[in-house]
Amino acid sequence: MQQIALLETLQPLLRTETFGRAIEGHVSTGSTNTRAKTWALEGADEGSVVVADYQTAGRGRHGRSWTAQRGRNLTFSVVLRPSLPSERFGLITLAACVAAAEAIEAFTAPLIPSIKWPNDVLLCERKCCGMLLESILPGNSEASEAVILGVGLNVNQDDFPEDIRPRPTSLLLETGRPVPRAPLFARLLQTLERRYTSLYEDDGQDIRCVYEDRLSGLGRTVTLRLTSSTRTVEGRMLGITESGALQLDTKTGLQVFHAGEVTTRRHAD
Ligand code: BTN
After folding, report:
1. Does a cis peptide bond (omega within 30 degrees of 0) precede residue 166?
2. Residue 127 CA: which ligand 1 atom is closest?
3. Residues lining ligand 1, CB < 6 A?
4. What contacts 24+ positions apart, CB below 8 Å, involve 27-31?
5. Half-sphere exposure in the Cβ direction for 230 (13 Å, CA)
6. Which of 56, 60, 67, 94 has its CA at a distance of 20 to 30 angstroms from the CA of residue 31?
7. What confidence tier does 62 reach under pLDDT thresholds 50, 70, 90?
8. How is the beta sheet containing 49-52 ordered, strand by strand?
């Protein structure tokens, strides 16, 4: 496999115990999530990372594709082997969003990233980072169940296809300066490891708190488009439940949602 320059710069900066200690770098691959799944089934340890300078079949949530300019962004996947009950796997996404927001902030201050429930990190109210969490069920494999956390972070992308709505952004576009990828990647692996590990310490209490501190729309009336449906629900956003679900105060009372797409008026474009 051809080595990518990003990895050579990353190695001396890495401050983690496990995340990124086993790492595979691709000049180009279909999807890092797909490659990480294969590696997990072959027995990859928790924290193993697949990163690519370019993906030819990058995947987003809800069956969408994820495209990113070659060599300018961070597109990677982490193999996780959580021992949390599966109904709490949603907390992993929350932890990953908090970790990404913290790492991004170190490079964008005074701009402060916020979070759009459940999986998006926003900068100046536009999406700069998304997560895709996929579970692998044991099946016939000898390996234990794993979860793949895919992260797509727009770092130095300077242009996006016109048809993406709402309009995404990148760290470069919002700060007006290029951001070095390797230090950002090293920081992100460190915050991911720390926030993921903390889920075992207090049942995710702290994560929910810091997630809500950054939650876009908290306390405001938002519209939620339910996944696999054209139905929408409007309500005031009250916060996040213990399993990471969204709580809305709707005209028919308090309701909890496990999936969906939140829009605020600002993002109708
Ligand atoms: C979303 O916001 O829809 C989630 C986007 C996740 C994209 C990342 S890029 C690295 C990893 N590999 C993939 O194919 N997808 C995720």
Report:
1. yes
2. 2
3. 31-33, 55, 58-61, 64, 66, 75-77, 119-120, 130-132, 150-152
4. 27/2, 27/52, 27/53, 27/54, 28/52, 28/53, 28/54, 28/55, 28/56, 28/70, 29/54, 29/55, 29/56, 30/55, 30/56, 30/57, 31/55, 31/57, 31/58, 31/59, 31/150
5. 0
6. 94
7. confident
8. 23-26, 49-52, 74-80, 146-153, 126-136, 120-123, 114-116
Encode 104-168 in three state secondary structure: HHHHHCCCCCEEECCCEEEECCEEEEEEEEEEECCCCCCCCCEEEEEEEECCCCCCCCCCCCCCC
The per-residue pLDDT for range 126-153, each reduced to its tens digit, is: 999 999 999 987 765 555 589 999 999 9
Query: The tokens 């969490």 sit on which residue?
Result: 133
Atom of ligand 1 nearest to the CA of 60: 3
For a mutational test of ligand 1's pocket, the pick from 33, 61, 74, i.e. the residue with the most ligand atoms closer than 8 A to its C-beta, is 33
Instruction: Output DSSP code: residue 11.
Output: G
Classify the phi-psi angles of 37: left when phi > 0, otherwise alpha if psi is within -120 to 50, otherwise beta: alpha
Q: State which ligand 1 atom lies nearest to the alpha carbon of 120.
A: 2
Residue 87's pLDDT is 81
Q: If you count them, how many residues does the chain have?
A: 269
CA of 249 to the centre of ligand 1 (A): 31
Nearest CA to ligand 1 atom 5: 60
pLDDT at position 192, please?
98
Strands across the sheet containing 246-250? 253-257, 246-250, 232-240, 221-225, 261-263
